Amino acid sequence: MEMLDSKQLTNHLKQILEKEDYRFLESEIFDYHPADVADSLKRLHLDQISLVIKILTNEFSGEVILEFDEDLRDDILGKLSSKEIAEEVIEHIDTDDAADVLNDLSQERQEEIIGFLENAEHATDLIDLLNYEMDTAGGLMAKEMIRVNINWNVNKAIREMRRQAEEVDEVFTIYVVDDKNVLRGTLSLKKLLLTQSVRTPISKIFSEKDLITVLDTESSDEVAAVMEKYDLVALPVVDVNNVLLGRITIDDVVDVIKEEAEKDYQMASGISESVESTDGVWVLTRARLPWLLIGLVGGILVSRVIAMYEDQLQVNPTLAFFIPLIAAMGGNVGVQSSAIVVQGLANKTLDYNGIFGRLGKELLVALVNATICAVVLLAYVLVFNSEAALSYTVSISLFTVIIIAALFGTTIPLLLNKYKFDPALATGPFITTANDVIGLFVYFIVARFMYGL
Amino acid sequence: MEMLDSKQLTNHLKQILEKEDYRFLESEIFDYHPADVADSLKRLHLDQISLVIKILTNEFSGEVILEFDEDLRDDILGKLSSKEIAEEVIEHIDTDDAADVLNDLSQERQEEIIGFLENAEHATDLIDLLNYEMDTAGGLMAKEMIRVNINWNVNKAIREMRRQAEEVDEVFTIYVVDDKNVLRGTLSLKKLLLTQSVRTPISKIFSEKDLITVLDTESSDEVAAVMEKYDLVALPVVDVNNVLLGRITIDDVVDVIKEEAEKDYQMASGISESVESTDGVWVLTRARLPWLLIGLVGGILVSRVIAMYEDQLQVNPTLAFFIPLIAAMGGNVGVQSSAIVVQGLANKTLDYNGIFGRLGKELLVALVNATICAVVLLAYVLVFNSEAALSYTVSISLFTVIIIAALFGTTIPLLLNKYKFDPALATGPFITTANDVIGLFVYFIVARFMYGL
Fold it and tell me: Hey, is the C-beta of A365 within 8 angstroms of any chain B C-beta?
């Protein structure tokens, strides 16, 4: 099955709902991937979507609901009773996804829904998972996994795996535990396939090597870092006694990695919480207004700096021409420098051993950039404004501002990181404003000197 | 094994190299994960690293080299002969990784290295893979995978899988093909585990459902989108006749997803190519100077705009105070609006159906933000500058500039995307400069009106 044009399916679903002939929803729709069905449903009205969800078989509707984005999912869940949510959604999806869905609901509703679950083990697992913060390894993990006892032989292991496989969607790794459920190692499917005798004990063919685990309390960023570093598809989660609690699969971590990268981007663009273009006006405003107000205060500060030099502007109004250029270039260089440091920190390619090396290199880059930019500007102003004092003022200021902004832009995120703040703060309006203020001070001081005031 | 402190291992390696006693490298080092060994080696001198690489067994050294970042890897390869590269690196790593390594080398060197390979199938596969562009499905795929013929039974399939498993690291999916190697479906390990009789024909237990494939010529962005949408761990690659060519695993796609997110971030920060803080001065300068020069030209343009209103500035030098504020706020709003659209396009949550809805919503957000910011600024200027004309000028201009910048910032990336340019260009200096120019025009026009000039 190729990715399909989901609009076609949307139209088909519309017709079905108009005719009130639901046979398609009871059979043919299962030929489509839940992600495609979700895509097509998105374009219908909320009432129509909930109707379809109720008609679909319980297993399929659970998978479809998981594919909706959070806002739509919450809207749909609002249309379903706790019993319906338990039966049509939670009962049939993996514990990690179920915990994610439940986490968006009130505690009262959570308990009600769990009360309606028929599978007692599923219910216990869920209560367990809901105790974890969402951004920890425990909050990411699923309880479903294949585990075998170190004391079994291949025959017994395969028999037990058959039983367990019925509720595990994908078998990535087989975990080997002892009688106390302490994680001892892994058994590769390859090894199992290659083992000729079913009498071979698991203890003979399992591997203790390269067993990478995380604690349930570890942060999701750390989980992502470990899985990326070791190129893992699944990662076992243990407690302090090394008891196996669950496993995290890479698809959940892809979202963490993506959100991390997007967060830095949003921060650099002056957006304070994770928003999407589909969010409401109020959410979008709330995410943006604070940065604009900080920018506004910055602008007011800058206006005070300029006001200090009003006398100079009165005598040489041409000085005003280059105010935005000096301010903007300081901001540009500062953001560039900070962004490189922020990414270096995020990717762990930068560490504190290299801080002086980093500053030195940044200084070299800034010198090259500053020289080229200053010469270009000098040439321009000499030719077009033909005022020597002005040309020297703007080019000397530009040179100085680029150097200062580069050093500032490199140092601030490193300091923020050292004191446990998010270094990406440095790419936002704070550093731009600071660079504007410093830049214009430099500009007017140089001007005062050049014009001999 | 937990993640270890790689500095300790670095120190140990240093001692070993000093003492010239290499026994550690011949046995105990295999207890470490190649990623950790690579991390520790990074801190040694290039000559020391190459020495260690040569001493390590061929299989292990290949895996270690893969963990280095590209620059270091190329440096190390520069220290090895073609024969050494073939034997110590290429021969023992998966075809997709091997193709990545070879892709960085000259064509001459590639051919030389392939000539030294002992495994003829590996060599043919590699030549095949090197024909693909790196950013296509063909460029991402590996040739290693488990495939069974639809005409076999479980017994024969398991026997063949045992043979194939020796060269495949991880078994994610078993692909079912016909005699012409046309992909017919998949066989889940779960199904295989659950099948009781070894005589059962594969054709009875394989699944044709939910078979998602990509063409070898598809772009890597599309591959990432498909794998994310369907939460896939492995994706089969086929040609136009549906012949199975290879498979792409999620770990390679995580890099694509991450690079994509980082690219937008770098673009927004005014960095034109993917650079890291570890890159050289010249690479870093080249990535940044073009944006600074564009910013410089923008600043010069802005200076021309201001120059047009020199007479006004002469009469009211206080007007100059708020020039940076108006310019900066236009830029801030524009970048916010663009960033939201850029992310919406990247995540496919935004489509053209919604363009007017998007603009309408953005207009609402802008109205709220503009009103609040303008009122704050009005109050400030009235209280502190107590010049009525100035306060009205700055607040009316600010209001207008925020609205224009928001609409502009929303429209430009949508238009860029429509005409196949990278929408992230809009978050760079272009839009900031455009907003500066428009903003200052608005400012001086409003001022002329307010001061009755």
Answer: yes
Chain B CB within 8 Å of residue A276 CB:
yes
Query: What is A393-453 written as a DSSP string?
Result: HHHHHHHHHHHHHHHHHHHHHHHHHHTTS-GGGGGSHHHHHHHHHHHHHHHHHHHHHHTT-
Looking at this protein, which amino acid is placed at residue B183?
L
CB contact at 8 A, A138 and A216: yes
| CA-closest candidate to residue A323, choices A305, A296, A337, A298 | A305
Nearest CA in chain B to A357: B278
Q: What is the ipTM of this complex?
A: 0.75
Beta bridge partners of A186: A175, A207
Residue B383 contacts A where some CB pair is shorter than 8 Å:
no
Name A294's Cβ contacts closer than 8 Å, sequence gap at least 6: A428, A429, A430, A433
Which residue's structure tokens are 């995307």?
B417
- Residue among B269, B300, B310 minimizing CB distance to A268: B269
**What is the Rg, in whole angstroms, of the alpha carbon atoms belonging to chain A?**
30
pLDDT in single tens digits along all 453 residues of chain B: 444 567 788 888 888 888 888 888 888 888 888 888 998 888 888 888 988 888 888 788 888 998 888 878 888 888 889 998 998 889 888 899 999 889 888 899 999 999 999 888 889 999 999 999 988 999 999 998 889 999 999 888 888 887 777 666 666 688 999 999 999 999 877 777 777 687 889 999 888 877 899 999 999 989 998 998 888 888 999 999 999 999 998 888 888 887 777 777 777 777 766 666 667 778 788 888 888 888 888 888 888 888 888 888 888 888 899 998 998 888 888 888 888 888 888 777 665 556 777 788 888 889 999 999 999 999 998 888 767 888 899 999 999 999 999 998 888 888 888 888 888 777 777 777 888 888 889 999 999 888 875
A320 in B contact zone (CB under 8 Å): yes
